[in-house]
Design a protein that fits this description.
The protein has one domain: Nucleoside Triphosphate Pyrophosphohydrolase, CATH 3.90.79.10. It is built from two helices and nine strands. The protein is of the alpha+beta class and 131 residues long. This is NUDIX domain-containing protein. It comes from Polymorphospora lycopeni. InterPro entries: NUDIX_hydrolase-like_dom_sf, NUDIX_hydrolase_CS, NUDIX_hydrolase_dom.
Amino acid sequence: MGVIDKLAWIRVTDGRILSARSYGRNTYYLPGGKREAGESDHEALKREVVEELRVELVDDTIEPAGVFEAQAHGHPDGVTVRMTCYRADYRGTLAPGAEIEEIRWLTYADRERSSMVDKLIFDWLRGRGEL
């Protein structure tokens, strides 16, 4: 039916992954979003992270982490999300911005509280011994 193309920031610290929850939602997502016209992945990801978490990704630390695809949360069957993920260091203090109600560091035990594509990422990180 269709593919939603998104970017995400994977930040793992002490066996926990940084996730955010939007107002009125009960599902956690990795920070990130969609590219705007003419934006590179790095530009879009940096913009989304500033909007959502009020921190700045450090340019020379941004590196690809993988591409994951699954059924899109809250969309009809057959609509998938393709998440192109990056890792990076950041500057600043994490704080909810834009539509974000809560920021949490989730463990693998919190996997069921995340979207389908994020569950794939949790499993991938678990297989690498990071979660």
